[in-house]
Amino acid sequence: MVEVQARAQRELARVAEVTGPLGERFAAAGEELALVGGPVRDAMIRRLQNDIDLTTSARPETTESLLEGWADAVWDMGRDFGTIGCRKGDWTIEITTYRSESYDPSSRKPEVVYGDSLAGDLGRRDFTVNAMAVSLPDGAFVDPFGGLVDLAHRKLRTPGRPEDSFSDDPLRMMRAARFAAQLGFEVDPDVVRAMTEMADRITIVSAERVRDELVKLVCAPYPRAGLTLLVRTGLADRVLPELPALALERDEHHRHKDVYEHTLTVLEQAIELEDRLPGGGPDFVTRFAALLHDAGKPRTRKFQPDGTVTFHHHDVVGAKITRKRMKALRFSNDTIEAVSRLVELHLRFHGYGSGEWTDAAVRRYVRDAGDQVDRLHVLTRADCTTRNRRKADRLRRTYDDLEARIAVLAEQEELESIRPDLDGNRIMELLGIGPGREVGEAYRFLLELRMDRGPLPPEQAEQALRDWWASR
């Protein structure tokens, strides 16, 4: 414990250049100020970033006036929740008035009530590891609920009864799963029990808040831990029902993989491959596509007389299911399209047999993947969970070959911007027609010709177009 505190002191010394003068500024005005929550926790586990959360006795208007002339920039987007933000050098700071908040059973928004003490403010926080503070400017450590002990034991508990905490803000149930995923902590059995009993309360929380927690969970270092907790407590049934639905019933007569466990394995393997992506990781689009790539299987499952099970067209069905769920969670259209396209294309690689890819097939693969081709590479590789080493090695070699083919053709033909060899104006000029449906048909013919045969000299493309037109 002493070692943890010493480590925290070293980390907190980094922010003293900011927190010291700011604490003195508030103290001179007769107000209390304390570093609180995540930054205190993160300092003790060497995760302290450049974002600082502070809590104060000052009301927002007082906080704002005290920051004027000191901060480089000040903003008040969180004023309704008692929060004033600012920037000082490389530090981003949010200062929130002591508060408590609770939900009306019929409301989606918390009612903010200002508090009057640091101890009271800490008591309303979600978990004990987030209910520690360092008062400013004296630097005294405040830990009324044993957060330091829980941090050392890697345990997630609430300051008071979990039922009271989750009644105040049901989103905290999802935060429990998110912190399990971020920190790798064990969630206290009383917390798990309360999450299970109160899972229905999550339905009063706005889709946007649920979405934001889900994104943080999926992008965490250990998402399996958080996701399995959501499934175990029934929260997933309310916020992401497609995930528990993958736990398909099986019996001794029907042979197929455990789709739920397969999905979690694919997610973990996709994470291991994120260094192949241009931006590295964590990459939400790739991870969420891995999580939902088999979402269509429950609806497409068919039992065969020989004991096997089929899931024909689960890729297409899964893409539709993915779009519907992501729209309900208020994701952006671009994110919905990216994830859905990956789900729809995740089987495309297996549709070309044992690797005898024609140039035309490679072109179509890249064209259909579009700007998601790098993510599709990762998802397709991650989707191999067979224990048969020989089969796994064969699939890996085949995909290595495909990526090499793509690289060669991309260099030769600019695959990502494939267009027909003739544009619309030239089509109309050659065929003697005006704008309309027939120009579109001719354009699609030339695009397919480009896919099949690669770039053609203009005279060959023109002759092919004339022959096609004459044969109509």
TrEMBL record:
One protein family per Pfam: PolyA_pol
Reported cofactor(s): Mg(2+)
Domain of life of the source: Bacteria
Residue intervals of the HD domain: 259-379
EC number(s) reported in the record: 2.7.7.72
Keywords annotated in UniProt: ATP-binding, Magnesium, Metal-binding, Nucleotide-binding, Nucleotidyltransferase, RNA repair, RNA-binding, Transferase, tRNA processing
GO BP: RNA repair; tRNA processing
GO molecular function, one term: ATP binding
PROSITE patterns hit by this protein: HD
Top EC class, one word: transferase
Protein name: CCA tRNA nucleotidyltransferase
Source organism: uncultured Nocardioidaceae bacterium
